[in-house]
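Lay summary. Proteins are chains of building blocks that fold into shapes, and those shapes determine what they do. In this project we predict the shape from the chain. Here is one chain we studied, written as its sequence of building blocks.
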Amino acid sequence: MCIFVHVRLVPGVPPGLEKVKEVAKNIAAVCVESRYIDPVGSSATKPSENSASPCTQTVDDYVNKFQHAIMSLTYRWAKGEKFADVLSGTSIYEGTVIRCLRRLEELMRQMACASKSIGNPDLEKKFLEGIKKIRRGIVFSSSLYL
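And here is the predicted shape, written in a compact code that computers can read:
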């Protein structure tokens, strides 16, 4: 899920990203076929009868918006590594990683609520377990100016 909250381009493709892109292409294709105006925008609503505007994004545009730069860092953080170890060997700023992890935690909380709302307690439990794994250490300190 961290590909939804990070926006920086990094060369190279980590393992597993191709599968994510394949699934994203399928989702985007359904959005385009359903005549959604903007498959990734804030308002994924069907155009009104009076509106003649075509889809504003192609399937490839949608898929290329997924950024993988923080995927491995997030995985290592969730596995319990220290923050300094997670950042070693990367050029991403500490503040960027902290901001992305906090946004990811918020997204996962919303997904847990959505899972509960649709009556899927197993999925809700998985999101809550994921939150427990990333919500630790300096990343979630109340103040970073201690």
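What the prediction tells us: Helices lie at 17-33, 59-64, 71-78, 83-87, 94-117, 121-134.
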